[in-house]
Automatic annotation (TrEMBL):
It comes from Leptosomus discolor (Madagascar cuckoo roller). Its cofactor is Cu cation. This is Amine oxidase. Its EC number is 1.4.3.-. Belongs to the copper/topaquinone oxidase family.
Amino acid sequence: MNMKTVLILLVLALATIFALVCVLLTRGRAPSSCQHQPPEQEDTGDGRSLVFADLTPEEMVQVVRYLRGNLGVQLVDASRAKPSDNCIASVDVQVPAKAEELRFLDGGAVLGPLRTPAYHRDVTVQKYGGKVPYHRRPVTIKEYMDINVLIQRELRKAPRFLTECCESDGTDLASLTTAPHGDLHVSRWQLRQVFYNGQYFASTGDLEDAFVADLLKVVKIKKPQAEAVLGSMRPRRPPGSLGPLQYEPQGPRYSVKDNRVTFQGWSIAFGMNPNSGPRLFDIRYRGQRIVYELSLQEALALYGSNCPGGMSTRYLDGSFGIGRFAYELVRGLDCPYTATYVDQHYLVESETPKTNENSLCIFEHDAALPLRRHFSDLQSLYYGGLQKTTLVIRAISTLINYDYIWDFMFHGSGAIEVRVHATGYISSSFLHGQGTNYGNKVGPHTLGTMHLHHIHYKVDLDVDGQLNSLETQDMGYELVKEPWSMQNTIERPYLRRKRLEREDEAAFWLNAPMPRYISFASPRSNKWGHLRSYRIQITSFAGEHLPTSSPMERSISWGRWVPGSQQRGGCWLPASLIYNQNDPWTPTVAFADFINNETITNKDLVAWISVGFLHVPHAEDVPNTVTVGNGVGFFLRPYNYFDEDPSVDSPNSIYFSSEQDAGACGANP
């Protein structure tokens, strides 16, 4: 073969390779590339949203410095303080009264902040109606450490029993304690009783004596090896192929500045209460305020078991710190890689501010579902639709064993969606006796204890102004004669409309019949003569939170109602307080007192919404509870608020017909 032939073959081979590469590179690519407008960066406001902002670390330091110099008592850092010491438990912002806020936001009035603290006053009696007993305070980490020391000291009194039952000397056993706790002097703390395998003892010494005397039925538990630990989340397989990722071709279509985010007509001020968790203010759509405040109030977990620890567990998570324990989010799993991550600062049980980095995320979410669409094949042939994307504000709180995913979502239709998912580890009890009356066996000697989750939100709606009324609608049937045939009858659905006049009517008891349409209505009408309204639509599987006959029930009486609506009036207390956990028998705030049958017609109203579900742990809750099926929430949906669906103005709407060139950018971007 001569050189010329070789060169010709090489050229042909290179040409073939080049053609194949071109085919591979263009496979699946659109026939042409359309030029898109860059995303518009919306105006995030003039800084007025900072009136709702969480305190900065610098402001917290200023408060601590002021208190140390002006309280007139010796302060011990809370991280080291004994119950008998004076300390700064926490520092948080007190949002001004709504009337003052609105004068500032809408009327141009001047409202703080002060450069440095200048004075202080005790508002305890004014706010709570009396002094707050010291025993109602949340238990500090230092106290939990002292409790653990006490437990370890007591365990040392039963060495032979621990060796036999658990292959342990007690030092490797974890302790979980329940509240409340009493005496201010740690030296006077004592163990009142000991429970083991269905039997109660006066002390660990008595437990040891019963074991030595062979009067105790011992269940031997082998110490698990590291690779066999029940509930381990370590991967069992090597990494697989990567899943789909979210992509923003031209960058984010939302804007974040300080504590405000804007997105396609939406404007929201966001923050985090260290105790009660996420809180949003001044939520506007197309310049009009829809919601003044949307905030998490409380999360209840109430357990059942035939063990004393399990049956007495009533966690009010606000007391532990829903916002404080919202930790850093993992990119690509907790939130998309492309999300905007925001740090949250708090000062709790310390005189030094702490920061949870990247603990709140904001992102646009492609729901992989049309917001609306239609394909017409009758008379005319066309397609119209709009992709469903939402703005999501998310935080995730880890409260000992459970992880709560808090989502606030803003849709192109003008709707707001609020939802919570539960995941994390189940709480368990030692399985003995008739334990399966209270759950399922999920591992060796392990009872997954049944429990309920109840979540409570405050929704201060301002629908086309502050003055609203509550309207309900539902369907009934009327039996009528057919107008075209008087011999026959027909069951005709009709709409039952009602305006609720007083708070008692607007407090819908849990599990009682409830109208399917509940709306906050403005006195003004839309183009078609209907009152401009926003509808509350709830997705929940909550059961009875606690019988009202229970002496503890008043502390969680917000759970009586699904939505409960009241005149806002001068009420500025939250539905629950950190002091309710440790004294539920005489709660510092009882939500039931909020509902006092005031008139609610054309008033500034607040909706209090409870959602929840029953969780009976099962084998598939090990190692972790999954989010699938364990989510509840509610929608705030426009109902005759607009004259048409506002998403019709979206620049992302799609429409093409048989008369158009579907390959043209103008017709089909």
